[in-house]
Design goal:
Elements: H1 3-8, E1 12-16, H2 20-26, E2 30-32, H3 35-42, H4 48-58, H5 64-84, E3 91-94, H6 103-119, E4 127-132, H7 135-146, E5 151-156, H8 159-167, E6 172-175, H9 178-188, H10 198-212, E7 218-221, H11 227-232, E8 238-241, H12 243-250, H13 276-285, H14 287-315
Parallel strand pairs: 1-2, 1-8, 2-3, 3-4, 4-5, 5-6, 6-7, 7-8
Helix pairs in contact: 3-14, 4-5, 5-6, 5-14, 6-7, 8-10
């Protein structure tokens, strides 16, 4: 078996792309999207019908601002609906990153996203609403989970974010591996192997804590830079991987061994529950996590604005 086939026996494979053709070819279980991936896919001619349908559905809104917001949400859900036709599992759809510090706005948009999926005949059980792992985002997700709306907390870079998500009863987290590595390489000027990769070590510590403390939140490692990082996390609950790296794994015939296992985690006591002030202090003390969280929100916001500009041109 190739490495991808071996990996599938250890972890659930998730495609990190908005490109439906790649998903149809690779046949993952789940798929994740974000504003950057949607923007890239929206520029391809074969997906223009999703854009047009989104514009058409937004025409009834009373103002241009309302039409734009409705169109963007409809387009994001439109890609999700098409993706779900090609996979047996879940799709993650991200809310507006500009609401990352606004609990109410995050909850309201998440409800609208789920309503759009339901109007398209998709049950909420097949959708994860993707939210940035700010304090406000985590608390918004806590409320949504209580309503039966399942969440994927993204842009997660440190242990405090993961601990708060578990305590909030979040369905799934997406700890970022590659972006952590990027920061440490830039800060130290050093290269890291898989055994010393700070992104890999971060995910391992979160996974071990969750399993040892019997938290049900799923760990889905994300943002990989190379197949070595993926191999070092074989056995993680889920792995969301770009098409290029999925192809690289499929082309590699070498033996892959399991690195993570819940049965290897000895039971331990849970840490004291985080308060808002403790969460913010621990995040503040972690320069990498503070910088990468802020940067990630800015980048997703920038790509969302580019998508809005594209949609505005078509509206006019």
């Amino acid at each position: 078996m190739n490495q991808l086939q071996q990996l599938q026996s250890f972890s659930t494979i998730v495609a990190d792309t908005g490109d439906i053709a790649s998903i149809q070819r690779l046949k993952p279980i789940d798929a994740t999207t974000n504003p950057s991936l949607i923007l890239k896919a929206a520029s391809q001619p074969e997906y223009q019908h999703i854009i047009i349908n989104g514009l058409e559905s937004a025409k009834s809104q009373p103002t241009q601002a309302a039409q734009l917001q409705a169109a963007i949400e409809a387009i994001s859900v439109g890609f999700g609906v098409e993706i779900l036709k090609a996979i047996p599992g879940l799709v993650s759809t991200e809310v507006d990153a500009r609401a990352s510090f606004d609990l109410r706005a995050t909850v309201e948009q998440a409800r609208r996203v789920i309503q759009r999926y339901q109007q398209a005949g998709i049950g909420r059980e097949r959708v994860l609403v993707k939210i940035a792992s700010t304090w406000e985002g985590i608390q918004a997700a806590r409320l949504l989970e209580q309503e039966g709306i399942h969440c994927n907390l993204t842009l997660l870079f440190n242990f405090a974010q993961a601990q708060a998500c578990a305590e909030a009863g979040i369905t799934l987290i997406s700890p970022f591996v590659g972006r952590i590595l990027d920061w440490h390489k830039k800060a130290t000027g050093k290269d890291f192997g898989a055994d010393t990769d700070p992104g890999v070590l971060s995910v391992k510590s979160i996974y071990d804590y969750y399993k040892a403390c019997d938290y049900q939140t799923v760990v889905m490692a994300a943002s990989f830079r190379n197949t070595g990082e993926i191999a070092a996390l074989a056995g993680c609950d889920k792995l969301t991987i770009s098409p290029a790296l999925l192809d690289a794994l499929a082309a590699d015939q070498s033996v892959l061994t399991r690195s993570l296992s819940a049965t290897a985690c000895a039971p331990r006591s849970r840490l004291p529950e985080l308060t808002e002030s403790t969460f913010r202090w621990q995040l503040n003390e972690d320069a990498m996590a503070t910088e990468k969280l802020a940067e990630g929100i800015r980048l997703f916001s920038a790509d969302l604005r580019l998508l809005e500009q594209k949609v505005l041109v078509m509206m006019n």
